[in-house]
Amino acid sequence: MEATQSLLSIKGLSKNFGGVRALDGLDLEVRRNRIMGLIGPNGSGKTTFFNVVTGIYPASAGSVVLEGEDITSFSPQRVYRRGVARTFQRSRLLLPLSILDNITLGDHSRVNNGLMFNLFRRKALTREFERSLEKARELIGIFDPELASNIFDPVETLPMISRRRIEICRALIGHPKLLLLDEPSAGMTHDETFRLIDDILEIKEKIEDLTIIIIEHEMTVMERITDHCAVLNFGEKICEGSYQEVAGDPQVQEAYLGVD
Ligand SMILES: Nc1ncnc2c1ncn2[C@@H]1O[C@H](COP(=O)(O)OP(=O)(O)OP(=O)(O)O)[C@@H](O)[C@H]1O
């Protein structure tokens, strides 16, 4: 696939919450196979953008087009089936459940379930379980081989970086084309953040045809990981380009870095 081809095309996207214009006529092109960074001060509309793209909130105006298909009014399930997966700012793991359970929850669209199947097709069920186990082990093994070896352990005893790795694997297990990462560094130390960024770069190398949009407040992360950045302020795009280009833009410095 061409790296220059547009995967996601956003036109005039707006989202109002009563009088609050969280997104205000946003235009954005996301090229296939890139890592795009979404930068902006608190409340600038970054998470709302993820929520509208994934169908959690309906758009007030504008369109979201994925590979030429208008998905603006799709339900979250349909958006997921079209190949868009995400993580959340706050950890959303089921803590008493195992690493495996938490990862395979993300594969719900492919699991051939149903009571009759589970009751009477025991061999097929076992094969399905083994396939899921293998897939989950392979994925988490890219992040941390120790987590792969302890895949039946509950998540609750694990440190934050392991939990984030599991959440990213849960998003990846359904083979998305587009992965949306909402502030993966939240709640982690500087050192953990940099280890996780290395993991994300490795994942990007190993998984073919994966485009990532990442929201992150940690600017050193953005500098290291992104091919392209867009900056939002009050729901509008005020600038885009390479990290160096946007970081040097006076409007961005004023809005985000607090420089006059
Ligand atoms: N469900 C909601 N109901 C009402 N207002 C909302 C809702 N979600 C977001 N907002 C408002 O929309 C605006 C944009 O919020 P959003 O969370 O998208 O910003 P953000 O850039 O992701 O901020 P942060 O960096 O703090 O996560 C804010 O003014 C916020 O209060």
UniProtKB/TrEMBL annotation:
A GO BP annotation: L-valine import across plasma membrane
GO molecular function: ATP binding; ATP hydrolysis activity; L-isoleucine transmembrane transporter activity; L-phenylalanine transmembrane transporter activity; L-valine transmembrane transporter activity
Keyword ATP-binding: yes
Keywords: ATP-binding, Nucleotide-binding, Transport
Domain of life where this protein originates: Bacteria
Ranges where the ABC transporter domain occurs: 8-259
Cross-referenced Pfam families: ABC_tran, BCA_ABC_TP_C
Cross-referenced InterPro entries: AAA+_ATPase (IPR003593), ABC_AA/LPS_Transport (IPR051120), ABC_transporter-like_ATP-bd (IPR003439), BCA_ABC_TP_C (IPR032823), P-loop_NTPase (IPR027417)
One cellular component (GO) term of this entry: plasma membrane
Cited PANTHER family: AMINO ACID ABC TRANSPORTER ATP-BINDING PROTEIN (PTHR45772:SF7), CONSERVED COMPONENT OF ABC TRANSPORTER FOR NATURAL AMINO ACIDS-RELATED (PTHR45772)
Protein name (database record): ABC transporter ATP-binding protein
Biological source species: Desulfoferula mesophila
